[in-house]
Amino acid sequence: MCISPTNRDIKTETTKKFRLADFFDSHWDKYMQAPKEFVKPEQLKAVNAMRVCRTAVLGIDMHACIECGDITHIYHSCRNRFCPTCSWQDTMKWAEKIKSKLLNVKHRHIVCTIPHSLHPLIKANRNLLLSALMRASAKTFTDYLENKYNIKAGVILVLHTFGETKDYHAHTHMIVSWGGICKKTGELKEIKDEFVNYEFIQKKFRIKFEDELINLFDANELQHDFNDRQSFMRFIKEINKKDWRLHLEPGIDVPEKVIRYIGRYSKRACLSEYKITNIDGEYISFKYKDYKNIGADKKPKEEILTLHYSDFFPRLLQHVPLAYFRIVRYYGVYSNHGNIPEAYFSKPQEVVAEETEQELEKLNPLHCDYCHQDKVYIMTIFDNRSRKERTDKFKIGVKMEERIKRKVVA
Prior knowledge:
This protein is an alpha+beta fold.
């Protein structure tokens, strides 16, 4: 039997310098008395989930070593997509899972951005137009590679609605296989040439999105302020002159380097808690990259933005994903893995070194460092008082959602 056992709380072991939930706890209730913008049900749900994440409200699992009695407390997570901690952990699990489902060819990281003058229309039709943006982005490159190289490529696409300062900035991040299944032979073919006619592909992206936009308008599915089709087409003509930006990075090998991009740009929350530099009373500060200010090293300079909670909350919450809206989607051959031979996929090396397994044991919170064996589950405890407060807030959110539905029906 080991000596000097110590109880461990894995919540405190991973505590960051500043927590977003703490800032919401301090000022959210006051903000809700007079919010600057209407708080949607999904936004209210995200805030309530984040505030109770990894607290006794959701429960604490107690695990103990049967030899020495060393106890570990594991706090339950909210698993909300907007929670900065939960979204990052879910992203890492997903990225690890997707490794073996990538074609064994180079991939390119590509970003597609639409003009800011489209943002008001997108905000009024988020589900329709964000889906249209995702389709147009992916189809631009799957069609391009099919027509030029006669191959079926794969695309993993991630939607982002935020920029560095968390203003609204709709764009897509894509991991595009620079190669694919040859349509003639069915063989796996990698593209050696990375040259792309930028102006041509930029125009194709704009046309594909505008086609989606016009079709939705003609089908009377858009919420808009245009008087007639003629005024709408004048608007389309005007945005043709704006920037439809594409950013293409060089091809990268699979799977490890690609996974870094996937982990970096996929399901993460829009504001990492590691970027929060200070919380001072009613103000929060976070760092961001200023792409308009490039330093001597050709990298954007890092700046600090400080906002009052009344400005910060609506700026952040506009990026809460719609309910049941998939911000990660698959196109081309990645939309149906079943028809692809197993040999065409990359095979990441499994780590079987003995010392690595020992390192993993040390990272496992349920592994006793003293007795070198797994701990067993004892019980789950809750903070009943906090649970009642959370239940009351949830009921308020449900009532708000019901009122909104009644208004929509009316």
